[in-house]
């Protein structure tokens, strides 16, 4: 009973296409000969498409993407300062639009310091945590506005919107995640300043916590959390936080774990109403695009998250093992994007051949 | 022509009184025998005062404090989770109220990695930057609200308010600061998401930059900035940013520079309409209060900022030199709060005695 899954590919801009090529190779390798196959559709979206057609994401694009089982995205964004992109805001119009339209209320960002990867931290214990970042609310809703723009009397407001509905569902996801891991959950917010949203987050965590007596719950202000990220990152298991704090913390998490070249993420709609979207945390890095300099590992680890999400836990584990083996074998000599992808593919296929005997 | 300056002391809670005692000793030592004297008034404010009287900061307190030339604050905040403080929010009602009422629109937070201090970073260059954090706007204005609180239909909003007036004055301060330093200014914001406030900040920086052709200006998203804080903090000279991003970045800055036990700050009203307020970045740390375990260095370096602000640059430099000497002499053996204060006092007074021969 073969299963065919529909995968939307959005390679995007800059290094996006290069890393997606390797990620797809890995996906194909790990599913080859199994009872699951991916039917892929390419979507040409991003700065390049905008410059060609003036479109960022049309209703037709969105409808077509929605019909898939999952999405793999490389990176979007043109060359910084490109005057032709001045009013485009590809990030808002494409990336954030997808996250909001497809109700990706969980933005899942795991951090591991893999053995062999040089972390900028002088010392760190066993670091393995996951940030559950809310994806559809907070200051990301775009509910700001400005008046008297360009005058000395300009006022520009941003509104962070937080709802019981939105906070509770992501908090519940985080508790479930903690229950399946080391049973520790840290809420990160700024409750002493953002008292309204802070109190909604804190009371929601308190309430849901009573259903999970086995989970140890604590709280950190976002500023204090950044301190622990560099002094004691091993203390964290699951962090649940709002959209903006999650954005900031996960870049920092990527940095301490040896670079966002390794940081994967999933934009997840746990209800399954819409397809979830998997992407490396890094950007499009137009300065090194097309030069085979990008590390495709983050995109490949995003494939592991995608496989997990689709219930293919064995294949996800094989991708992760291959990545860990590849990272452990690194000796600092430079490799091309393709070489890294090939190495991971062969780490996947070699043991599989052995097993088949 | 002796000059008498009026100093308001707010030792506050937890370790606040201990570190303020040492800071005052240093202030007295560095001004002893000079033509400037400080007349000090103690204000008993903070969680302890609230528990005793129910007051956080009365109009009379505020009026009395306003009549001073400067304020030195230790730390405020009771024991976390103390049920009697549940609805007090000392941070908002005292610290933030002072910053707003006294129009402290510049929150100045320098970061140096001093020789001899163990940084959590495996390697770092010559780190010496200053964050100019806006202090009277942004998400700190308290303009949020919530409806249907405690129901499944709760909505909690926070409003970040940004004005041309408020942004321009802090941006101008930052450019002046950069002009007196290494002539590099980095705006940190999240312009790709917070498009209204982001565009006000970016356009203000662009406009003021044209008056400072000698200053190199760049821009980083706040998430990317955290990466550089751990991978290349030496790249920064002056960072200008909003209230919330500044809060987060300066705790991280404290951590990479070897702990917020060394991080000083000034809440400055550059116009001189109101007294400026100097305080260590760290909190009240009730868990170690009264045990002589707190490092008073951040409070002492805050005295240096205070002296600078009052035009006493020589004395400020002597405090900093004494701190640098004390830090360089540290061998990791534990010292009491008083011992550290005494050592810095003697580093100040010894060369002064020599000079007098
Ligand atoms: C590109 C940007 C809009 C995005 C965000 O802020 O979420 C990115 O930083 C991320 O973390 O995925
Ligand atoms: C105590 C708190 C309100 C304060 C802030 O957020 O500004 C503190 O974190 C700081 O940085 O001085």
From TrEMBL, chains A, B:
Catalytic activity: (2R,3S)-3-isopropylmalate + NAD(+) = 4-methyl-2-oxopentanoate + CO2 + NADH
Binding, Mg(2+): 223, 247, 251
Sites where the protein binds NAD(+): 283-295
Localization of this protein: Cytoplasm
Entries under Gene3D superfamilies matching the protein: Isopropylmalate Dehydrogenase (3.40.718.10)
GO BP: any one term: L-leucine biosynthetic process
Signal peptide limits: none
Record has Metal-binding as a keyword: yes
Keywords: Amino-acid biosynthesis, Branched-chain amino acid biosynthesis, Cytoplasm, Leucine biosynthesis, Magnesium, Manganese, Metal-binding, NAD, Oxidoreductase
Domain Isopropylmalate dehydrogenase-like: 6-344
Predominant subcellular localization, coarse grouping: cytoplasm
Cofactor: Mg(2+); Mn(2+)
Chain positions recorded as substrate binding sites: 99, 109, 133, 223
Pathway note: Amino-acid biosynthesis; L-leucine biosynthesis; L-leucine from 3-methyl-2-oxobutanoate: step 3/4
PANTHER family membership: D-MALATE DEHYDROGENASE [DECARBOXYLATING] (PTHR43275)
Subunit structure: Homodimer.
Protein's job: Catalyzes the oxidation of 3-carboxy-2-hydroxy-4-methylpentanoate (3-isopropylmalate) to 3-carboxy-4-methyl-2-oxopentanoate. The product decarboxylates to 4-methyl-2 oxopentanoate.
Protein name (database record): 3-isopropylmalate dehydrogenase
Encoding gene per record: leuB
């Amino acid at each position: 009973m073969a299963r065919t899954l529909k995968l939307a590919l959005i390679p995007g801009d800059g290094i996006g296409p290069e890393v997606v090529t390797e990620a797809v190779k890995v996906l194909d390798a790990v599913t080859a000969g199994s009872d699951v196959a991916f039917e892929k559709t390419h979507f040409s979206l991003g700065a390049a498409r905008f410059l060609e057609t003036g479109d960022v994401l049309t209703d037709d694009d969105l409808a077509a993407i929605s019909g898939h089982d999952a999405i793999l995205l490389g990176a979007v964004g043109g060359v910084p300062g490109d005057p032709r992109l001045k009013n485009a805001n590809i990030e808002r119009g494409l990336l954030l639009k997808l996250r909001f339209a497809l109700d990706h209320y969980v933005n899942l960002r795991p951090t591991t310091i893999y053995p062999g990867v040089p972390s900028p931290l002088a010392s760190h214990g066993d670091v393995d945590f996951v940030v559950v970042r809310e994806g559809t609310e907070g200051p990301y809703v775009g509910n700001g506005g400005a008046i008297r723009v360009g005058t000395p009397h300009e006022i520009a407001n941003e509104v962070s919107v937080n709802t019981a509905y939105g906070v509770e569902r992501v908090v519940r996801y985080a508790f479930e995640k903690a229950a399946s891991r080391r049973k520790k959950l840290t809420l990160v917010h700024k409750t002493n300043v953002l008292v309204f949203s802070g109190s909604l987050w804190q009371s929601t965590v308190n309430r849901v916590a009573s259903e999970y007596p086995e989970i140890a719950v604590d709280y950190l202000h976002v500023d204090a959390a950044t301190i622990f990220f560099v002094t004691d990152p091993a203390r964290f298991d699951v962090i649940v936080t709002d959209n903006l704090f999650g954005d900031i913390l996960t870049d920092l998490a990527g940095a301490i774990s040896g670079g966002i070249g390794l940081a994967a993420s999933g934009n997840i709609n746990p209800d399954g109403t819409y397809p979830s979207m998997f992407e490396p945390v890094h950007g499009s890095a137009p300065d090194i695009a097309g030069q085979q300099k990008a590390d495709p590992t983050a995109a490949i680890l995003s494939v592991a998250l995608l496989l997990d999400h689709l219930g293919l836990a064995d294949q996800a584990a094989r991708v992760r093992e291959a990545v860990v083996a590849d990272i452990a074998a690194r000796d600092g000599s430079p490799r091309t994007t393709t070489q890294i992808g090939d190495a991971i593919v062969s780490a996947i296929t070699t043991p599989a051949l052995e097993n088949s005997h």
